Each structure stands twice: as structure tokens, then as C-alpha cells.
Amino acid sequence: MLKVTNLHVHYGAIHAIKGVNFNVSEGEIVTLIGSNGAGKTTILKTISQLLEQTEGKVLFLGENMKQYAPHEIVHLGVSHVPEGRHVFPDLSVLENLEMGAYHRKDIKNIKKDFEEVFKNFPRLEERKNQQAGTLSGGEQQMLAMGRALMGHPKILLLDEPSMGLAPILVDQIFKIIDKINKTGTTILLVEQNANRALHVSDKGYVLETGKIIAQGSAKELLNNKKVKEAYLSA
Question: Which of 86, 147, 157, 229 has a CA-to-CA distance to 136 between 20 and 30 Å?
């Protein structure tokens, strides 16, 4: 479904991503783990064409993503939940969700997706008329995920969904990630909580200073001594 081949990305003179290769098959949850500055967010932004690769290819369903502008990526079936949530603070919860479906014309299915979002995130329905900027961090994360799902994506890119959340909300977010996947959405997950991420994933890739240093099934990475020592000790 998603194939990244020999990906290189530069920030000016800084070589941030150095020849990364990975793939995500339909129906999978694939996680990218690594410390801060490893390049995880850069990879997601490059897939979404928010950053430009200097070399390599990103193919989604056989299409070269380089030929599309960021807003066109959504039309292909790729939704991106950025690190830091980035909800529209002055718009209501409902208006934020409507923004997620801005490109869609299938009114009946949009209504169904609203119902599905509210089923997954009942707190959003309770606060649907509230300004997004007044929500708690956990509620804003739910809203960012719900807004992305309103695009009816084939693949969901999630960047640090558990960051800054209380443990009880982290549990809830990971249960919802698993549920979204089981209803047919493929997920590429970037997450510092490597232990939790691998427990819901099919496979993973470990990034270090812009390179993949380990890969395998989630079970293999959970049992990999070096990965355990570096990323799973907490």
C-alpha cells in the first residue's frame, strides 16, 4: 500500500533522513520508533509532502506522492494527525470535524462517519459546540484523530498520539487506534512510547539519526535485546 524507497531528506545542510526503506501493507499497523531527533516526524511530513525529499520515492497505491501538493494527498486517502494536535482553536468541535471532510461530496457517508467518530470519542459529542481551544490536551488529541477520520482515509498517519497525556487517556487512545485498524484503516504510527506502540502493531522499524537500524515483527522487536535496552526499559 505504502512503499518508501531510498528516502533522503535534508534541512538545508543537515542530512535528516539517510536512505530509509520500509513498507506498509493494507490492514497493518506499522510503528516507527526512535528517540527525539531520529527523523520519525520528518518521514511522516515527507509522506504528506509537507517536506520535500532530496532523493528516493514515496509510493502510495502505486502513485508517486512527489507529484501531489499536500492538500491533494488527502484526496488519495492519506490523513495525517500531526504532533501537537493542531486543532483550529477558534472553531467548535463540530466545525473542526467538518473541516476534516471538506473535500468530500458523499453527504450520506459523511453523516455515518460523524456517528462513528462520536461512537469512538463520546466526549467529543458532549462538547461538540465547544471551542476546540478550550478542550483539554486529551480531548484535543481525540479531536485531531476524529478530524482525520472524517477524511475517510485508507491510511492514517499518527504522530505521537499519546504525548503529554495522562496514563488513563493513553490507554484509551491505544484502544481506539486498535479499533480504528480493526474497522479497516491502515495505520502508520510514530510513537515514543515504544512499548505500547509495538503491542498494538504488526511490525516496526527502529530509527536512529535518520537511518533504520532494526526492523521486524512487533514480537521480534519486543524481544530484541538492543531494542529493549534502548527503547523499552521504561
Answer: 157
